[in-house]
Amino acid sequence: MTFDFKNKVVLITGAGAGLGYACALAFANAGAKVTITDISKNALDKAIVALRDTGAEVLGLLNDASDSADVNILLDAIIMRFGRLDIAVNNAGIGTPLQEFHEIGEAEFDRVIAVNLKGVWLCMQAEIRQMLKQGGGRIVNMASATSRNTYPNASSYVTSKFAVAGLTRTVAVEYAERDIRINAICPGNVATPLVVSLVEDLSVLATKHAMKRLGTPEEVANGVMFLASDLSSFSTGSLLEVDGGWNAT
Amino acid sequence: MKLNNKVVLITGAGGGIGQAAVRKFVSEGASVMLADIGTDVTQLLVDELGTEHCACVAVDVSQADQVENMVSTCVERFGGIDVFVANAGVEGTIGEIINTDVSNLDTVLAVNVRGVWLGLHYVIPVMRDGGGGSIMITSSGAGVKGSPNTACYSTSKHAVIGLMRCAALECAQYAIRVNTVNPGAVDTRMIASIEKGFADSGVDDFKGMVEATTPLGRYGQPDEIANMMVFLGSDDSSYCTGSVYMVDGGNAT
Q1: What is the architecture of the domain spanning A9-240?
Q2: Element housing A214 (H / E)
Q3: Which residue of A has its CA nearest to B217?
Q4: Do A237 and B231 touch (CB under 8 A)?
Q5: Hey, of A183, A216, A224, A235, which one would you mutate to test binding to chain B, going by the most B CBs within 10 A of its CB?
């Protein structure tokens, strides 16, 4: 990789494993000062150790992105430690067991929306308040190929990811002239712990993509790095697909 | 470098975005075949960047025999094609449909759609036989939204998105990725021509109108489009195919 994020202060939420961890590793290898959060202490601790092996400065915090008090503490901690926040990757998200719509419990829907949508909403609000103070910043939200495509029996998840796309695009317009660029990335299926936990047969999943394979966490991280870098200086409010051709079908 | 030892074929290489892309590709380690309707501009660029990694060829992309010749010229000179940028395009005339001669539609579709189709037709077999590659088509902000007075151009730029999606699905089996890059208004000769076309149609401040509707509040620079082309041409985007990549300052939001 040739991205350079030397001394940039980067937050990645939900970075204990999967796509978030891959992003954190990519930023750490590119010279960034990395703050990671997760809701699992075990995953967080392992990620902190692995990231410090790159030589990067790492701050790790147990955090629930759907809790506004938690999110405010997170931002305070970043500013106390690093003095600013250059880049935020709002990645924390959950899936649901595949289930037909008429059988889904209300609490299940609320939980998915709380983390995947309100979590991004809360994080973006805290991040943007800081970025306005310091005069700019970059935000990349973890949307999904299902921000534009359907996925039967995953209606709560799909709803939350459609919403993240709308939120990203609208808020991007509001802050475009204040040097805060906000974009989203739309991954196809990647064999992350989240996907593996929900899907029995990954080979069937692979057939959804024109490339007939799943993506890798690194391929998603490459897209995130592109959107967070100055290479994408004319991009805001856009959705960048990394989906093996899923959305062309 | 992201494109070390890769061979890039780019049409419209003498245009504003084309020139910026050529410079980026070369700086990322690629060998580049510069194709354009003439060689006046591209030869100067080859002279500047050096004949070791650059060469140029004249092509009218709407003519099948010329496109075939362009592809074989690239293969003979550099041994294959890893990245194809179908970037040649014309803006045509500006004006309402009822005031536009059908010959303008024919011209714009011949270059912007037929030209891209022919490029795919001749490049894909070469890429397939070489083990894969990346193709990108220069669409436009006008490929995802309409605007008055630009029907021929906007139609052509919408059309290549459909073409891209079909090609992406057909080519995944050959390890060829196919995408579009969709620039908003970019500071080039073409946008100056469009500004003039609008002025002639009674719209005085096209630039101001675009800036007012573009969240980043300005035209893009050719380099900013070229950066996306490097991303899509490189292995950084190895899971990206069949998609539309906006570089438009947020205009399509």
Answers
A1: 3-Layer(aba) Sandwich (3.40)
A2: none
A3: A177
A4: no
A5: A235
Handedness of CA B167, B62, B152, B85 (dihedral sign): positive
Query: What CATH number does residue B79 fall under?
Result: 3.40.50.720
What tokens appear for B228 in the block?
A: 């996306």
Answer for the pair B120, B81: CB distance below 8 angstroms, yes or no: no
Query: CA B230 to CA B3: how far, in whole Å?
Result: 8
- Structural domain total, chain B: 1
Q: Which sequence positions of A are flagged as catalytic?
A: 157
Task: Quote the CA–CA distance of A148 and A158 in Å, as a whole number.
Answer: 9
Domain residues for the domain of B104 are 7-186+222-246
Alpha carbons A208 and A227: distance in angstroms, whole number = 25
Q: Under an 8 A CB cutoff, do B240 and A188 touch?
A: no
Q: Do A210 and B242 touch (CB under 8 A)?
A: yes
| Residue numbers in B near A242 (CB within 8 A) | 237, 239-240
Is residue B1 domain-resident? no
**Is A142 in contact with A168 (CB distance < 8 Å)?**
no
Task: Spell out where chain A has E strands.
Answer: 9-12, 33-38, 58-62, 87-90, 137-142, 180-187, 239-242
Contact B233/A at CB under 8 A: no
Give the nearest partner residue to A234 out of B224, B236, B242, using CB atoms: B224
Residue B157: inside a domain, yes or no?
Answer: yes
**By the 8 A CB rule, do A141 and A240 touch?**
no
Question: Mind telling me how many Å the CA of A187 is from chain B's nearest CA?
Answer: 9
- The angle formed by the CA atoms of residues B148, B150 and B154, to the nearest 5 degrees, is 115
| B64 close contact with A: CB closer than 8 A | no
Distance in Å, alpha carbon of A172 to nearest chain B alpha carbon: 8
From A107's Cα to the closest Cα of chain B, the distance in A is 33
Report yes or no on whether pTM surpasses 0.80: yes
C-alpha closest to that of A171 among A162, A179, A183: A183
pLDDT tens figures, B160-194? 999 999 999 999 999 999 999 999 999 999 999 99
Under the banding of pLDDT at 50, 70 and 90, the label for residue A1 is very low
User: Does B153 qualify as catalytic in the annotation?
Assistant: yes
**Residue pLDDT, tens place only, A34-64:** 999 999 999 999 999 999 999 999 999 999 9
